[in-house]
Amino acid sequence: MIYVPSTVPHIFSAMYIPAIYTGLIIGFFSLIAISMQKRDIHVLVLTDVVGFAMLIVVAGVGTDLAESFILPGLVVELAEVLAISEILISREMRKISADNPSASFNPMPMKYDMEILTTAPNFLSLLLIAYGVFLTGFTGGAIAGGGILLYILSRKARGLPVFVINGVSGVSGIGWCMWIIAFWIFFVAPQYWLLCLFLAACGLLLKVATKMGLIGVLMREEYGKD
Amino acid sequence: MFNVYIWFYTGIFLAIIGTLAACWGPGVKDPVIRTLNTEVASIGVSLIFLCYNHMLALLTLIATSVICTLILLRAISRLEEIGADV
């Protein structure tokens, strides 16, 4: 007998058992495949699939709390993949330079020669950033961050100074502070809930937009060389 | 009539097939093909989220799976460039 609270709709409780079994099947298969793999980059790709199993098991519960647990799961998985891929690359570089100390690891030059990359990005990214700021919150942050990403990826001049990268991280920290202050005011003085809502939404906007902008900087370090 | 179960079971099917394709599917010796196969499973998970009305989770999943694919493809191409065994 499974206890189902009365607030859960019948249709969600009917989907619970298939969803849980799907999560278990996916987790089983992908973990077996990971245990049989020897090369690290394949294991990293399969870790992504194990993450899907986790997501399905959490989503199967079907409540709002479960949905709010999915979001940090996704973001942590993204950060983990980013960090481990950097570690893998630097480890391979160390291995190769131990065998052959004169090996060069400069990325291959890549030439984009497209008209659209020189004329459109200014207008398109301005439009995306303006719309993202108008939306605020998570979705707005994603859209504004997409605008920053487009602008950075399509510009020819490469290499932002370290100062600018540190500044972008600092703006992201200000976003966190706004968020925390908003939560604090919300519990201490609930009558200012509208102020808290907008403070939290703008904090989240800054946070998400700067995070996506940083990914753009990272990608350009590799590919934007000419 | 709109039937949620059609989309739900399509999502389950795609998620399982995508997982099998990423684990033992054709051509998975190449990490690029393995990465692209995980996208099938990701579409299945998106359909499951859609059936549960998890709108924010669905949007975040779409965004993070695109960025994850970019990061993995960058790592793979970088590893092949420096001549590592992938």
Share of β-strand residues of chain A = under 5%
Strand residue content of chain B: under 5%
Largest contact between protein chains?
A: A-B, 55 and 50 residues
Radius of gyration of chain A over all CA atoms, rounded = 22 Å
Poorly predicted regions of chain A: none
Task: Count every helix of chain B, treating DSSP H or I runs of 4 or more residues as helices.
Answer: 3
Task: Name the helicity range of chain A.
Answer: over 70%
| Cα distance spanning the termini of chain B | 49 Å
Report the structural category of chain A: mainly alpha
What is the gyration radius of chain B calculated from CA atoms? 15 Å
Order of helices and strands of chain B: HHH
Q: What percent of the residues of chain B sit in helical stretches (DSSP H or I)?
A: over 70%
How does this model look, in words?
The complex is a heterodimer of chains A (226) and B (86). With 226 residues, chain A is an all-alpha fold. Chain A folds into two domains: 10-99, no CATH class; 116-223, no CATH class. In chain A, 80% of the residues lie in helices and 0% in strands. Chain A is built from seven helices and no strands. Chain A has helices at residues 10-36, 40-59, 64-99, 115-135, 137-154, 162-188, 193-223. The termini of chain A are far apart. The model of chain A has no long low-confidence stretch (mean pLDDT 82). With 86 residues, chain B is mainly α. Chain B has one domain (4-82). Helices cover 80% and strands 0% of the residues of chain B. Chain B has helices at residues 4-24, 31-51, 55-81. In chain B, helix 1 (4-24) runs antiparallel to helix 2 and helix 2 (31-51) runs antiparallel to helix 3 (55-81). The radius of gyration of chain B is 15 Å and the shape is elongated. The termini of chain B are far apart. Classes of the chains: A mainly alpha (226), B mainly alpha (86). The interface between A and B is large, with 55 and 50 residues.
